[in-house]
Design brief:
It catalyses: [protein]-peptidylproline (omega=180) = [protein]-peptidylproline (omega=0). The chain is of the alpha+beta class and 473 residues long. Helix content is 52%, strand content 17%. The strands form two sheets. Strands 5, 6, 7, 8 and 9 form a five-stranded antiparallel sheet that branches. A four-stranded antiparallel sheet has the order 1-2-4-3. The radius of gyration is 32 Å and the shape is extended.
Length: 473
């Protein structure tokens, strides 16, 4: 067995030879199974003499199954033990090949992709700028509506349709006076303003009431996926059958009490929580966008050799994700290719380019971390887990089942890299960033401490109640 690091290909190659008793044992194990399905004239299936049965065993099937036996036997105990995931910088899944096979010997080749050596481009003169992370009034209002949406109810309306309402209607679509395929439906439900229909369709429905009928004149986009309809004017006759209006609760002291959030005890607390929670989300989004965009920029001038198998694995993952999404929409890949006027080869090439770009970004980010000796301490992980534990009144062991250390590490590394890049490129922005970050951390700490105190008080009252009940008995 040999182990070799191939830097140019960014992989570790291990060759393993199976021969003698080990290989013969694997072959015999497979023969025993295959003999059960062999039929020889004059004998019942699977009961022919061994010599006669072996003459009829397909040699390729014998080798294929025996190879699987050996791989399953040696992979964990002999192959993977030769590697150190962290030290060897393993990344992705291994590629296993049969170099040669005969009745006497099997030679296997295990290629383990590794993170490539990266020579970074200049990241001290970035064109990438930190996105705006300061909260605006629309941001705050959106955050408030998102929270209130949890308590939103829809009520039947007799009034005219307005943006945000849900309309249920029948429609018949015609082009040049002729009904076209898939252009009609009954009891169709549509949120007005969602922009899911042809441009202009939803706007023309505004003002209609239940029971009313109207012809909507629209034009299909020039790039519409159905060639026979692209760019053509169409008339949709709609019959409004029902209108539902979204109704949100009024934010007052009674509503605040119903929320049952330990850190929100008044309308003032509610407004503060909405504002700071929205700030936290916008800050996180800005950091992620900044770090990703900056990493892509630096990757363009960096040097690295990404393992081809790794690119193929990543591209294949994109393909499987697409197939899964299409399946949920009752569309197969062939139909998708026809609709998008794309070939399978073109899509594979597109995914391969996307995979290479994404992997370059990942490895560039990792090299920035390594070159600047950015490390995470156990206390940082403990702090993050403790915050979640206090918020949800759950033991840290349970929290770890839902939030992996890898996820927390990614968040912490991104934050540290963002601060490094801002320090090098936008020092004034860094000052503002740290101020906002401090506000968010202060709010998070308040949430955590208030929740912890609340649950401790609840536990105390529960114990006292049990004690009182026991004494009465």
């Amino acid at each position: 067995m040999s182990k070799t690091l191939l830097k140019k290909e960014s992989l570790i190659r291990i060759e393993y030879v199976s021969e003698g008793e080990e290989w013969e044992s694997a072959l015999e194990k497979v023969r025993v199974e295959l003999r059960k399905n062999i039929t020889v004239k004059g004998y019942r299936k699977g009961h022919a003499p061994t010599r006669e049965a072996d003459k009829r065993i397909d040699i390729y099937e014998l080798f294929n199954k025996a190879v699987d036996v050996i791989i399953n036997k040696v992979y964990d105990d002999k192959i993977y033990k030769q590697l150190d995931v962290k030290k060897d910088r393993l990344f992705g899944q291994p590629d296993i090949k049969v170099i040669s096979v005969s009745l006497d010997k099997l030679t296997l080749q295990f290629d383990f992709p590794v993170q490539p050596e990266v020579i970074l481009g200049d990241y001290k003169k970035l064109k990438t700028k930190m996105p705006n992370f300061k909260l605006t009034s629309p941001d705050e209002e959106d955050a408030k509506q998102n929270l209130l949406a949890r308590f939103m109810v829809t009520l039947d309306s007799e009034g005219p349709i307005k943006k945000g309402d849900i309309a249920i209607f029948d429609f018949i679509g015609k082009v040049n006076g002729e009904v076209f395929e898939h252009g009609s439906a009954d009891d169709f439900e549509l949120e007005i303003g969602s922009n899911t229909f042809i441009p202009g369709f939803e706007d023309q429905m505004i003002g209609l009431k239940k029971g009313e009928t109207k012809d909507l004149v629209v034009t299909f986009p020039k790039d519409y996926h159905v060639d026979t309809l692209a760019g053509k004017p169409a008339t949709f006759t709609v019959i409004i059958k029902q209108v539902k209006t979204k109704t949100y609760p009024e934010v007052n002291e009674d509503f605040v009490k119903q929320l049952n959030f330990p850190w929100i005890k008044s309308k003032k607390d509610f407004d503060e929580a909405v504002k700071l929670d929205a700030t936290k989300n916008k800050l996180t989004s800005a950091v992620n966008e900044y770090v990703d965009t900056a990493s892509i920029e630096v990757a363009k001038t960096s040097k690295m050799n990404i393992n081809e198998s790794l690119i193929h694995q990543e591209a294949n993952r994109y393909m499987q994700d697409l197939v899964g999404k299409l399946k949920k929409q009752d569309v197969n890949l062939k139909e998708y290719l026809e609709l998008t006027k794309t070939t399978a080869e073109g899509l594979e090439k597109q995914f391969a380019e996307q995979a290479k770009k994404n992997l370059s970004k990942i490895f560039t980010f990792g090299q920035i971390v390594a070159d600047n000796k950015i490390e995470l301490k156990d206390e940082e992980f403990d702090k993050e887990y403790q915050i979640f534990a206090d918020l949800y009144n759950l033991p840290i062991s349970t929290i770890k089942q839902y939030i992996s250390t890898e996820k927390i590490a990614d968040t912490l590394y991104r934050d540290k890299v963002a601060e490094l890049l801002l320090k090098l490129n936008q020092p004034k922005v860094l000052e503002d960033y740290l101020k906002v970050k401090k506000e968010v951390e202060k709010f998070t700490k308040k949430q955590s401490e208030t929740s912890k105190a609340f649950y401790e008080e609840m536990l105390k009252k529960s114990k006292e109640a049990k004690k009182e009940t026991k004494e009465k008995k």
